[in-house]
Structure formats: C-alpha cells, structure tokens
Amino acid sequence: MLHHLKDAKLLRLTFFNVTSELHSELYFGPRNERFGTVRSLAAGAETYNRYKELVSVGNLPFVRASSSDRVVKSALNWTYGFSAASSLRFNPVLSVILDENANDTLHNSCGAIGSSDNQTDTWIAIYTPSIVQRLNNAAPGANLSSNDVFNLMTLCAFESVATESISDWCRLFDEDEWKAFEYEMDLDKYYGTGYGQPLGPVEGIGYINELIARLTSSPVNDTTQTNSTLDRSPVTFPLDRTIYADFSHDNQLIAIYTAMGLFKQPRALDPTNSDVDSTNRTWITSQLVPFSARMVIEKIQCGIGSSRQDEDEDYLRILVNDAVQSLDFCAGVSKEGICRVSEFVESQSYATNGGNGDWQKCFEVREYTAIMKYIVIHPRIG
Question: pTM of the predicted model, to two decimals?
C-alpha cells in the first residue's frame, strides 16, 4: 500500500528509491555526531515501516554511499535503523562506497563549476551592516565585521544541534534578520549547484541516468560521471531490487533536483533584493535540503486511466522531505503528482543527452590549465 496516497484505484507500490543527505554538515564533534546518528537511525526505521511490504529475505535494500566518512556513517546507521525496525529479520548492508576522487554520481565531479560567492557576498554586504552596527554598539571594542555576523548566525545552528536546545546565540537576532540570513542560504544553493549556476545541473545528470536504469530495469546509459565498471555489474549496480538507498551531500542533492527540473523558479534569485517574487518562490533551502534531507521516488502501478493497459503501466511520484512534488515537467501528470514512468524518462532529455554539451565544459578550464603548466615546465628552446 502506498503511504498517504488517497487514490482508491491504487494497485501496488513496486519500487522505492531514496537519495538522501542524511548526514549533518555540522559533523565536528561527538554531540553533533549523535544528532546525525539519531536522524539516520530514525530514517532507516521509517523506511522499513513505510515500505516493509517490498522487503523479503531475498530482496533487501541496496545501499550505496559516497566515500566521505560522515556520509558512510550515515548510511551504516540507516541500515541499523532499518534492521532494528524489522526486529533484526531484514539486515541490509552498505554494498558500495563510491570513491569521491573517481567517477561518483553522489559527489561533485565538474572541475570547472563556479561558486555562489559573488551573489552571497553581495547580499551579505546589504543585510549585515545594520546588524554589525547594533552589535558593536552593544559591545564596545568587539569590532565585529559582516563575516563575524554570518559566523555568529551560523553558530546558532551549530550549538543548537550540539546541545539539542536553542542556543543563546540565536537570541541575538530578530525575525527579519533571520529571514535575511535564510535568503543568503537560498542564494548559496541556487548559485552553487542550482539553476543560477550554469554548470550546476550537470552535476546531477549521472545520477538521473542511474535512476532511469532502475526505473526501467535497463542498463545505465551515461557518458558523464557514472562509474561504468560498477554500473555494468549486477553485484555493484543491481536492477532487480525493490528498495534502493543512496547517501550523498546536500549540494549534490540540489544538483539532482535542478537537473531533473524540480523547484524551477519564474526568474533568477536576485542577490540584491529578497522580496522579488518572494510570495511565489519555492526555492527555500531549509525546505530543499534541511538536516536529513531526502528525495524519494516511488514506482507504482495504479489505475489512473480508464483502460486495462493504463492499469498495467508503471507510474511514479516524487517526494522531497515528504512533500509530494507536482512534476509539471512530466506530460500527463495527475493532480496527485503521479506520472507515467515513460513520460518521466521522456522529460529527462537533459540527462539522457549527456547535459547537451555541458559535461564537456566541466573540463575546459582544467585542460587549459594543464596545457599552461606543461608550457611553463617545458619551455621552448631556441
């Protein structure tokens, strides 16, 4: 039974794929490690309780993680949570750890990608001066700067997670100041690996092509950052599982959203004005990649159409942090956010076409730099 779907014609959920950023970027000590551990354990247990009808001793979740230590630990904790929720009957293991120094669809691979520094620096220069003045007036001699303000606001989150209670640092700032800080986070992700970064979406296309392979039970067709050796093997990239769980980073999850077409905005975020389209804006980082962010793709069979053929066809829906996505880019999508798998695949032409040339741009600067180094090291004689 598909959790929370109020469609009487629902037949069965056949497939579950989760891409998760279930680690904490605040991972720097035992207290924060405990926070991430608890969230990962809970996520594993939740997955079992929600999708246990898809599990059998011969068909356990297939789990992958990028090789960052905190990501690996989160994946392991997820498996422990899943196992515990099943009373140790079903015990998935972390099967593949993707080396972040090699082809890895769960980590950034585009060498020429830019950054969001220009946009975030512009906004910091706009919203922090009044805060700097207020705090310096209250604490003579502190000589706080705009960067100090940013760090203090970030410390609010760090300490709140570490102590599991709201930090006193949070009380230094009012609601409007927190909204301005949040907008800085929105700009950071939007211009980091989101729609505002020309090479941002290309970071996500390898994973989407892997997703298509899983949805269609067909070999991976990709020429970008997939590891072809691993993806060709049924041991390291099986196509016959009912639950897949991948563990990654928040920036990579943003790139996957963007490459797929989720959270597209009517216009680019303005680094000088947070009020532009603020009522219609859906690009809100705290909703896209909060702690323990996850994207879930459910493959289902349900009777949306009137014919028997419709009932036998595969459909999907996508949830981001438990919110069902509208999938406006998918032709024929229902009001419940359900679209045919075939239409979804058709909508992902950016990924299936290898990024329309963007992937090659990822290495143009790197190759130019390598040539320049060669010229310097081996100067022409004569």
Answer: 0.87
